[in-house]
Write a structure and sequence with these properties.
Blueprint lengths: L1 H19 L4 H9 L7 H5 L3 E7 L5 E10 L4 E10 L5 E2 L8 E6 L6 E5 L6 E5 L7 E2 L9 E4 L5 E7 L4 H10 L12 E7 L9 E2 L7 E7 L5 E7 L11 E6 L5 E5 L5 E6 L5 E6 L11 E6 L6 E2 L9 E6 L2 E8 L2 E7 L6 E5 L4 E7 L5 E7 L6 E6 L6 E2 L14 E8 L5 E8 L9 E7 L19 H7 L2 E6 L8 H4 L8 H16 L3 E11 L1 H12 L5 E5 L5 H7 L3 H8 L7 H7 L12 E6 L8 H12 L4 E6 L9 H19 L14
Parallel strand pairs: 31-32, 31-33, 33-34, 34-35, 35-36
Antiparallel strand pairs: 1-2, 2-3, 3-4, 5-6, 6-7, 7-8, 9-10, 10-11, 11-12, 13-14, 14-15, 15-16, 17-18, 18-19, 19-20, 21-22, 22-23, 23-24, 25-26, 26-27, 27-28, 29-30, 30-32
Length: about 675
């Protein structure tokens, strides 16, 4: 019966595609778009989003970025906006080709700097906050990676990747393009340039050689030193060799500061310049363990870990006279904390909005700009004084969706198979009726140490709002391994990947069915990356789902291990290589139980994915075909691990909408195609 139904569905699609040729593009598109409940997919993907607020030294103005799609060029454009006290924000930059980002204030507030790739390579530009045209400040041959103003505003330090050598160019000319894996790369080094607008200035190189590549860096409060982290090479798996050194700007002398095993980075100076704070795993670089914040005397000495009593990852934002301001996930929220650098005690400062993503401090160390969101707003920029903490919203991005029906979000909890407490976000449609059983779509986040949070709108490759408007519930489970619940919870799927994750997802579905909220015959699941892996595991191990979508998912841990660019990830979670413990690789691989698969599965994957290489997609697709399960593989051309261009994101939304419409609602959906009139 299933195969017969599939053949008739395929025939209806073929007939629909034939009809496209008989209709004008405009008429066809309008007819099909009108059948989609809620906002159009393209309207959701076209929403403007904001980020990276930077407050002026006097606290009266705020820079931030706005990102939106350019559908004609099929890319996302980022531009810088400016808010002045008491005025409406306005767009400051307008980049014809490329984007503008990395905005910063000069210490005297006379200039706004930013990076843009208007010419070849990213360069630093300057513009007056009073208006006028931006002008290019640097013309560095290899472009600018990141930069920071010196405290007195007389210099800018930046990092740049070293140029290709003559031997490399000659080799390509003679033998074409090839690369020796893990052996060929270019390093990144520190430079500084004087800010003299009356005379052309040459940048001065501060670090060089083939010993290390530079990562993040910070000027000392007196501007005489730069603390920076570095590792032997830029290869992905060298992250655990990151150390910290200090450079004396005048002499160029470099002194090693933190050289212990493991990853130590993100240096941050104390206000008096006597200490340096940094993030560390203290030699334990397993993916699921907590990062700590530690301090060390700037002159060298003993390392003091400050955050051992706080069971989550604290991200340092600023070290002020009041203490060290940090952000950390707490269950489904991201909140602001103050760390005492002497006692190591941590105090929550704010939880409004529900999720705070970054802070920028004015010179008074009390006035801040932040951006964040909660379940009733899109991400917005706020300003507040930390003494009173009453955030004033200075943007209105939420106004873009004021006419939309967005439903409601609830945080729910349930017990998994092994009694672990699991939390998730439940999306309910407008007019939700108690006692009615709804279709359920489970959307599983990646990571695994990411977190699903209550949000007003979510885009990407899944049409959340349209499914809500069609009358479905959506569940986003924060399965074991998710951030926000402590190190022990993040380690619950070690050597139990897929298995324990499936317990958490299935028990969440059962919980909603037992509550009388869900129609057990109309449940689907999907996810990307680690969420795609869990979806693949459900495909071959669960019978609860009528349809599944696997986005960039792992299907075989052996295949994944030998192809991925992050080999340690697998060794950390499975506690060994395939050659050491094949049993655990079989236990946790979706392909092991491919003969048990019976759930129709859509597979979505980027052509050049290095994180989860595409052999995982082909393996699952072929296996499902071999055992007679309906499967469809869509390869998005020229993409890596994520779908990052708007047109392909739109296509991916349609592909998911079509797949679940067929199996959850038993509807044949044709994807709109505009054809030019002849």
């Amino acid at each position: 019966m299933m195969k017969k139904h599939l053949r008739s569905w395929s025939a209806s699609i073929a007939a629909g595609l034939f009809l496209i040729g008989l209709m004008t593009g405009a008429a066809y598109t309008a007819e099909l778009e009108s059948e989609i409940p809620g906002p159009a997919f393209k309207d959701v993907l076209s929403l403007k989003s904001i980020g990276s607020p930077v407050i002026s030294p006097d606290g009266k103005s705020i820079l931030y970025t706005v990102r939106q799609p350019d559908w004609e060029k099929n890319r996302y454009d980022t531009e810088i906006w400016l808010y002045r006290d008491g005025q409406k924000p306005f767009q400051l930059t307008r980049t014809m080709d490329g984007s503008s980002s990395g905005a910063a204030w000069s210490p005297d507030s006379q200039w706004i700097s930013f990076t843009s790739s208007r010419d070849k390579g990213s360069q630093i530009y300057l513009i007056s906050p009073k208006g006028g045209e931006a002008f290019k400040f640097t013309s560095h041959k290899e472009g600018i990676n990141s930069y920071r103003w010196s405290p007195d505003g007389e210099h800018i330090a930046f990092t740049s990747t070293e140029p290709r050598g003559k031997e490399s160019e000659a080799r390509e000319k003679q033998y074409g393009r090839f690369e020796v894996e893990d052996a060929e790369y270019r390093l990144r080094h520190l430079w500084t340039i004087e800010v003299d607008l009356d005379n052309d200035q040459e940048a001065k190189q501060l670090t060089s050689g083939d010993v290390f590549t530079v990562g993040s860096f910070r000027w000392s409060p007196d501007g005489k030193w730069i603390a920076f982290d570095h590792r032997p090479d830029p290869l992905t798996n060298s992250y655990n060799k990151t150390d910290i050194s200090i450079l004396e700007v005048a002499s160029g002398e470099i002194t090693s500061l933190v050289t212990q095993p493991g990853s130590d980075g993100g240096p941050l100076w104390s206000p008096d310049g006597n200490w340096i704070l940094f993030s560390t795993k203290m030699g334990d670089d397993r993916y699921y363990t907590n990062s700590e914040l530690a301090k060390i005397p700037a002159a060298g000495g003993e390392i003091t870990v400050l955050t051992e009593s706080f069971d989550e990852n604290l991200g340092a934002v600023a070290w002020t006279a009041q203490g060290i301001y940090c952000l950390a996930s707490q269950t489904v929220y991201r909140q602001l904390f103050l760390l005492d650098p002497e006692k190591g005690s941590v105090k929550k400062i704010a939880s409004t909005p529900e999720n705070i993503y970054s802070l920028s401090f004015a010179d008074d160390e009390k006035t801040v700009a932040l951006y964040g969101m909660d379940r009733t707003t899109l991400t917005e920029v706020y300003r507040t004084n930390l003494d009173t903490y009453r955030p004033e919203r200075i943007t209105d991005m939420t106004g873009q969706v004021k006419a939309w029906r967005t439903g409601k979000r609830e945080v729910i909890r349930w017990k998994s198979k092994d009694s672990a407490e699991i939390e998730g976000i439940l999306w309910k449609p407008e007019g939700y009726a108690v006692g009615k059983r709804y279709p359920l779509l489970v959307i599983i986040h990646g990571g695994p140490s990411a977190t699903s949070r209550p949000a007003l709108v979510s885009g990407g490759v899944y049409p959340y709002l349209q499914w809500l408007e069609k009358g479905a519930l959506i569940l986003q489970p924060n399965y074991r391994g998710s951030a926000g619940y402590g190190e022990k919870f993040r380690a619950l799927n070690v050597r139990n990947l897929g298995v324990g994750d499936m317990w958490d997802v299935e028990s969440g579905v059962d919980y909603l069915i037992q509550k009388g909220m869900v129609d057990a015959d109309r449940v689907g699941a999907m996810g990307w990356s680690q969420g795609g892996y869990i979806s693949a595991f459900l495909t071959t191990n669960s019978t609860k789902f009528k349809a599944i979508s696997v986005g960039a998912g792992i299907s075989n841990w052996v295949t994944y291990y030998v192809n991925t660019d992050i080999h340690p990830f697998t060794r950390h979670y499975l506690k060994g290589t395939p050659w050491e413990d094949m049993d655990v690789y079989l236990k946790t691989s979706p392909m092991t139980n491919i003969n048990k698969a019976q759930t129709p599965t859509l597979i979505q994957h980027g052509e050049f994915d290095r994180r989860v290489p595409i052999p995982n997609a082909y393996e699952l697709f072929q296996g499902l075909q071999d055992v007679g399960v309906e499967a469809r593989l869509i390869v998005y051309k020229d993409f890596g691990h994520g779908i990052s261009r708007p047109k392909e994101q739109l296509a991916a939304q349609w592909h998911n909408w079509q797949w679940f419409a067929k199996y959850i609602w038993e509807e044949a959906v044709e994807i709109p195609l505009e054809l030019e009139k002849k």
